Amino acid sequence: MDLHLVTYFVAVVDHGGITKAAQSLYISQPSLSQAIRTLEKRLGVTLFDRTGRRLELTEAGRKLDDAARRILADVERAKRKVDAVRELRSGRVDVVTYAAFSIDPLVNVVRLFRERFPRLAVRVLAADGPAGVLSALRSGDAEIGVIDSSAEHATFSAIPMTEQELVVASPDALVAGLPDTVPRSAIRSVPLVIDHSDQHTAALLADLLDDAAGNVVVDCPLPAAVWNLVERGTAATVVPRTVGDTQLAGTRQLLLDPPLTRPWGLVLRSGLPSPAALAFISAARAHSGLSQEPTELPDW
């Protein structure tokens, strides 16, 4: 049943006749009369008793009147909810990423997002590397993924952001005698704790590993556990420079020669992004120091 037919029916009931209802709806009287006849034909019932000067509801009409008003009320409530999301008064964006980006850039992007859009919420999902991010997007569990932008992202829409500079954070005793900027090959003799299960990251760090990755003494995907192991002197690790500055400030941080960087960006599932997703993208661009490109909300 067309929504406009429901609206026309309720208007006729409220105004007690076709003429005044047509005036209130800004349509012609014949058009409204035809619409009511169409509604009756589709339902297979007579809705109005037309014997008097004022249209009166039949029993079927009274039942439809109750249902029609509930339908219009539900539509109005839904419209208010959509308007609230479109105007960024409420809503949530679901974001998926993995350990490599769980602190940098995710924490700062979420902070900026909440500062700019305090009525919006974020749900963060954990994945196992780039493939897990794409799987979550494909299944609809998340709308945006934070990912190494050099990773294969198939048919998903990609928004490149910027790069992480990676450094070696280490207890002093494990890198004694090494300069503050070291050749990558010098790290092959340093015991490391890294997430070696992330094949994309493992490939990125290949120059820092000895034969068969023998200097990876702890394979751990949990950032907090990795940092604790480094602080307790178990091994060194490779982290974004910003993470080393904030989370491992008590360790020695070595720059690499040549520098080691990791590009990151956002990937989005197909279709128009939600208003909350567009807001998250704007926060990510602000974090990356990129200009804010004009975006339009979906025409729902």
TrEMBL record:
Residues 1-58 form the HTH lysR-type domain. Keywords: DNA-binding, Transcription, Transcription regulation. PROSITE patterns: HTH_LYSR. GO terms for cellular component: cytosol. GO terms for molecular function: DNA binding; DNA-binding transcription factor activity. InterPro entries: HTH-type_LysR_regulators (IPR050950), LysR_HTH_N (IPR000847), LysR_subst-bd (IPR005119), WH-like_DNA-bd_sf (IPR036388), WH_DNA-bd_sf (IPR036390). It holds the Pfam family LysR_substrate. Belongs to the LysR transcriptional regulatory family. This is LysR family transcriptional regulator. It comes from Gordonia alkanivorans CGMCC 6845.
